[in-house]
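Narrative summary of target 7.
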Amino acid sequence: MPGRFEGLSDIEWELFKNLLPCEPQKRGRGMPHVPFRYVLNTLLYILITGCRWCDVPTGEQWASKSSAHRWLKRWLENGT
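Modeled conformation, tokenized:
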């Protein structure tokens, strides 16, 4: 049964932060990388609620579906 998820609390984020690789440096061009906390919020939202990628919430604490999917793919490839 799908659940409800509002995002990671500060304490929960501290537990996950050390498991993820270091955030990349700012690129010279284009948009800056979305913070990993927002990416993890989005990925956990999909896992907990069972929603489709196109139904990912938008807002301040969420990453876009394309950013979340891109980082998930990178983390799977590098073993994170």
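Residues 39 and 67 are 7 Å apart (CA to CA).
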